[in-house]
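Ticket #4471: structure export looks truncated?
Reporter: QA, pipeline team
Priority: medium

Steps to reproduce: submit the single chain below to the structure queue and open the exported record.
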Amino acid sequence: MTSTNDILCQLHDKIKNEFPDLSVAMFPENPDLYRLNHPTGAILISYAGSSFKDHKVIGAGSLMRVLQVSLIVLMRSLNSEKGAISVLDQLRSSLNDHIIDGCFDGITCKSEKFIANNDGIWQFVLDVEIPQLIRG
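Actual output as written to the record:
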């Protein structure tokens, strides 16, 4: 079975390759101390949990795990070519249906929303789901 950290690392690498001009990192362990130092913006990857259900169609003892991952987009601009809205469009397009090694099916984009604007930093979140089949 591919571990949660392996899945998140693969997701990180995919996003980093698609957005070489941004900072891409795992969500900080102490978010209150996080400061955006990058001149354009960042994408932070946060594991939000999983849901499970029996998947007896495939085999006895199999379990379908759906990882919920939040991608926090922090940008200094909102509407420019390198702004938050443009990055969200590109991120959604890049990830939707992308299959991570060890997972059952492609990534599904579930929702996105505006979080806040703090000191000129636009903050949005894109929530995605990643299905993984765990065989018994």
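Status: closed, not a bug. The export was complete when the record was re-opened. Leaving a note from the reviewer for reference: Residues 63 and 87 are 34 Å apart (CA to CA).
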